[in-house]
Amino acid sequence: MKRPQVREEIVRAAEVAAEERGYEIVEVEITKKQPTRVIITVFRKEGVNIDDCAEISRAVNESIDDDLIQGQYTLEVQSPGLDRPIRTKDDYRRNLGNKVEVRLYKKMDDKKDFIGILTDYGDDTVDIREESGETVTFDSKSISLMRQVIEF
């Protein structure tokens, strides 16, 4: 089976296993180096724990064909991590209402770094509400990094 078809099969198995348990797939990465590593990143608003990862891993392992991946491989299931950059529309959706840090390529209003609540996003823009209550709109292409702010 060709690599794109292998990936499709693995993604399909991961989506079924995750969705049956109330999770969504953030990313599926398959390394080219031997032994192959299949890394599945899952998300759930309530959080992801080690037992959940193990359960999803077992379900995916059982549902993919033994001969789907040639040679040995390892299967890893993980959470996105607290400091994962927010890049995709799904990432924006998952982080609506969360406090985020925005770093720009170039200064806007004399600064490059902003912190606020992610309130909206579109095809070309992202809005945050700063602590002052002011809404700041960024051109998506001007953002070099956005990630959730973790407060302890």
From TrEMBL:
GO terms for cellular component: cytosol. It is found in: Cytoplasm. Its main location: cytoplasm. It comes from the Bacteria. InterPro entries: Ribosome_maturation_RimP, RimP_C, RimP_C_sf, RimP_N, RimP_N_sf. Residues 17-83 form the Ribosome maturation factor RimP N-terminal domain. Residues 86-152 form the Ribosome maturation factor RimP C-terminal domain. SUPFAM superfamilies: YhbC-like, C-terminal domain (SSF74942), YhbC-like, N-terminal domain (SSF75420). Keywords: Cytoplasm, Ribosome biogenesis. GO terms for biological process: ribosomal small subunit assembly; translation. The keyword Cytoplasm applies. Required for maturation of 30S ribosomal subunits. Belongs to the RimP family. This is Ribosome maturation factor RimP. The lineage of its organism: Bacteria, Bacillati, Bacillota, Tissierellia, Tissierellales.
